[in-house]
Amino acid sequence: MQTVSKTKEARRLSKLKRESESHESRNIAKRYKLPEAAVKLIEKAGPVYGQQSRAIQVAVELLWNMPGWGVSDESMSHILNSPLTGKTYKLPPRTVGLINGLALEYGTKGNVLAAIAHMLTADPGDSRPDLSTRLTRMPLPPPDKIVAY
Fold it and tell me: What pLDDT score was predicted for residue 69?
């Protein structure tokens, strides 16, 4: 086995570091107005998924891919009753688009993030909760209110 000097190894590692000019992030920094309770719940869920943006991404994909299912206003009323605050998340473009699309169904983007926070609320003892258990069957809107994507 070969031994490498520390300086040679440091030089090799510094060449591997990303330069911000050549490798720009593809994520978009978006600022949302959402309830403070939602911010705290998303912060708690961050370590389970590695980071807050990944937790949001997982929950948004689940909400989007389960039509007819969602989070009712009654079940997330304790989140919606807290004061609004601004929070910036760095999210992939697809996630930002899905949040915008779901805002038509939930009323505002902040309500979408409140629904996500409700989904991410951890049950005691769950290391990685099944988010779909927090969804309920939603009634269909009247035919004149259905938006085709």
Answer: 80
